[in-house]
Automatic annotation (TrEMBL):
Protein's name in the database: OmpA-like domain-containing protein
Organism annotation: Rotaria sordida
Highest rank taxon of the organism: Eukaryota
Coiled coil segments of this chain: none
Annotated segments matching region Disordered: 1-21
Regions of compositional bias (Polar residues) in chain numbering: 9-21
Domain OmpA-like residue range list: 1-21
Length: 21
């Protein structure tokens, strides 16, 4: 998701939001 809150993935909406969760 854009906020960088993804389950076992990476955020895919914005390069700057790629935070693992």
């Amino acid at each position: 998701g854009r906020g960088g809150v993804e389950v076992g993935q990476f955020s895919s909406s914005s390069a700057g939001d790629n935070n693992p969760l």
